[in-house]
Amino acid sequence: TPDSGLDLRNIQGDILSGMPKKTETFYFFQITDAPTFRQHLRAFVPLVKTVAQALKDRDDIDKHKKKDEGHGNKPHVIPIVGVNVSFSHFGFVKLGIDDSKLIDPAFLIGQRQDAQGLGDKGTGDGESFVPDWDDAFKQDIHGVFIVSGDSHPTVDKKIQDIEKLFKIGTNAASYKKIVSIRGDVRPGDQSAHEHFGYLDGVSNPAIIGFDKNPPPGPKPVQAGVILLGQEGDQNKDGREPWMIDGSFLAFRHLLQNVPEFDEFVNKNRLQLPGLTEKEGADLFGARLVGRWKSGAPVDLTPFLDDPDLATDPLRNNNFHFSAERDFQKLCPFAAHVRKTNPRADLEELGFSIDRNRILRRGIQFGPEVTRAERQQKKTLHRRGLLFACYQSSIASGFQFIQKSWANNPDFPFGEQTPETPGVDPIIGQLRGQTDRGLMSGTNPNTPATTVSLNDIWVIPRGGEYFFSPSVKALRETIAA
Ligand code: HEM
Fold this sequence. Notes:
Layout: H1 13-16, E1 23-31, H2 34-44, H3 51-70, E2 81-87, H4 89-95, H5 105-109, H6 111-118, E3 122-123, E4 130-131, E5 143-149, H7 152-165, E6 175-184, E7 247-256, H8 258-267, H9 277-289, H10 307-310, H11 336-340, H12 344-347, E8 359-360, E9 363-365, H13 371-376, E10 384-391, H14 398-406, E11 438-440, E12 450-452, E13 458-468, H15 471-478
Antiparallel strand pairs: 1-5, 1-6, 2-5, 3-4, 7-10, 7-13, 8-10, 9-10, 11-12
The structure holds protoporphyrin IX containing FE (HEM).
């Protein structure tokens, strides 16, 4: 166990280490009877997986893998399951818990009220804005159980255990299930890739004290960037004891229109000397993301994919855009990874971006693209990303990244950007518009050339902001 000074038995496991998972269900609920719920929660708390336990799970998996390999066997999956729980502001209100010292304005209004500001489509305006989301997310969600594991049966069995504790299906039930959404890691060699095909989960902030010997890359951040009450939490001194070691969870249910995205990439493929059509398309796509599908960063390998670089942890995150703060030959300004973690673009101007770092813990959902979808170049089945990230401030973390960076066509800004970057082509949104304007820099030789982002391939269908309390807070404050 890393010697971090952090109480790893008090912090929920999804936050710092991530729970090992092939599948994960987000189970959203609304509390119907607060006193009974608190009583049921008492029996539930022992199920919660902590960071310490999640780290042990990882060790066990590694040990089994080594043993199987030592015996010349194919590694077999050992049953692993983990449970976490988080509450929305509305959940705390229902439970009669004063959460005003959580301070975060995004958390306190909830994501539905924030959706217009995030750029989601919808009807009405201001307070009466109703996002164009799935019905489930238009209701008040009070909390979410996150259940992850090695297989559907282990996860489903654990969900049954939870439902039993809360007496679901009887008159004594203390919450109403709103919806549960299952995410699954993609099959085979796509297992760590999101549905557009790019390797995901490469760059997460290293936490000082917790991540021993972090590989070269962005500067490690203090634990308080993620955990409330720890060094680096902007509101450290204003927290109440029960808030310490908790973290805000921003959840987004994001559809991905994969065949349509592929068609866009193919249509706009770069026609450069020496490149085949496929290479031209791969290069164009890589410049939208800032990484090749393999995971190799275009800042380090701008013209050719480099799978060895992609899987080398000592190199695959060690780039800073510092060689090209004022141009975009290597990586477009608007590329997803440059928008969401601009590194030297801001740091070399003297701005710290530590408080804008987030720990991403999402998972894919939905089936692989079918032959019919490929032929018709049209999405016929829902698939995408159950986006989840942790931070000690949603206003500085998820909300800031989405609103001020991804959705802002002028970011990265300043004298150093000769061309207007455009919005993030993956997640940028312009107030409900499908046409998201122009992006520059996709062609390395003529950075001022723009492509029109007149379609959108990542579509928000719902979400909420939650708080994942410490185990102590669950036991002594929330279930008390
Ligand atoms: C990185 C895809 C949504 C924030 C990445 C990477 C990919 C990716 C392929 C590069 C791999 C890595 O560094 O781990 C997607 C897709 C999304 C999505 C397909 C939607 C369906 C979001 C959202 C946010 C976000 C909503 C936050 C508002 C980030 C951050 C990084 C990242 C912070 C790491 C950047 C870095 O440190 O270099 N994403 N993403 N992503 N994404 Fe996303």
